[in-house]
Write a structure and sequence with these properties.
This protein is an alpha/beta fold. Helix content is 50%, strand content 10%.
Length: 312
């Protein structure tokens, strides 16, 4: 890193503080030890269902596959007590197919990855055109990737200007800013990138851990760093920013641990799908399986549940 980049990081860390790595690891380890009783567990499992962004992001995606995903989102299981998920997440070219499948009168939102996801290595004008096209086709939410190269070089203004440009291109559409935490390398950098992004966002926008396309995605540790950044930013500004951990969250047990972290860090105001989401698909069937277990006392075979896309 060039000297100017190092100086930029020092200035930013002096403003926002750094992360106690050992303390952070000790804290998140405790979330895995919490015991949740039957009634609270069922409530938590159903809450997690409402927070899922059911996702397919593959080169072989087709309109038919997206339509199937949308039907799963609208009715995750034959049990009508199971709530709908928060959103379906698809590539921009699939937004119009998702809109047709979901219709207009639905609470299930359409999220679309954009800005040359997952690498973001395209000219800004191309990235903005992709955002505008997805919004025009009916996307309710845009998931963008930050310029990690600019951030790591300490070119913070460039990184923020690009986020601001995407925010403008979104208009009234919700924006989720993907930090790609595995490429940021340290908790201090994740905290710094969280603050830089949040300064460009509106109330109700999200910061997001990952694209789901790298080897390391959402963990309790990087989730906690971002939760605490959101808390500190909210205390400073009064602006509530939402969080979406994505990638690697596959079991109901993991989801409940993440929700415990949310409750203990940000409180009940963040325990809803306008302020917290899971970027996952394989997670949904495990949530359904655990709900059925609590209801009947026995685990159902995996084929008991309809398939969902599993690209996250």
């Amino acid at each position: 890193m060039a000297f100017s980049g190092q100086a930029a990081f020092r200035r930013l860390f002096s403003e926002i503080g750094t992360v106690d790595y050992v303390g952070m690891e000790e804290r998140v380890a405790k979330f895995a030890t919490r015991s949740i009783k039957k009634g609270s567990k069922v409530w938590g499992l159903k809450l997690a269902v409402t927070m899922v962004d059911l996702t397919t992001l593959e080169g072989k995606d087709t309109p038919g596959k997206v339509e199937s995903l949308c039907q799963k989102a609208l009715r995750p299981h034959d049990d009508l007590d199971i709530p709908q998920v928060a959103a379906v997440c698809v590539y921009p070219s699939m937004v119009r197919h998702a809109r047709r499948a979901l219709g207009e009168d639905t609470a299930v939102r359409i999220a679309s990855v954009a800005t040359a996801f997952p690498a973001g290595q395209a000219p800004l004008r191309t990235r903005l055109a992709e955002v505008k096209a997805a919004v025009a086709d009916g996307a309710d939410e845009i998931d963008m990737v930050i310029n990690r190269g600019a951030f790591l070089a300490g070119e913070f203004q460039l990184a923020q200007d690009e986020i601001a440009a995407v925010r403008d291109a979104c208009g009234a559409t919700t924006l989720k800013v993907i930090l790609e935490v595995s490429e940021l390398e340290t908790y201090d950098n994740i905290r710094a990138a969280s603050f830089l992004a949040m300064r460009m966002l509106q109330s109700g926008d999200f910061i997001k851990t990952s694209t789901g396309k790298t080897t390391l995605n959402a963990t309790l540790g990087n989730n906690q760093v971002m939760l605490e950044a959101i808390r500190d930013f909210y205390l400073d500004t009064g602006t509530p920013i939402a969080l979406k951990p994505a990638g690697g969250i596959r079991t109901a047990k993991q989801a409940l641990q993440f929700l415990i972290a949310v409750k203990e860090t940000l409180g009940d105001d963040w325990l809803n799908n306008t302020r917290y989401r899971f970027g996952a698909s394989s997670l949904l069937n495990d949530l359904l399986r655990q709900i059925e277990k609590e209801k009947s006392g026995a685990y159902q075979a995996p084929y008991y549940f309809s398939e969902a896309a599993e690209s996250y």
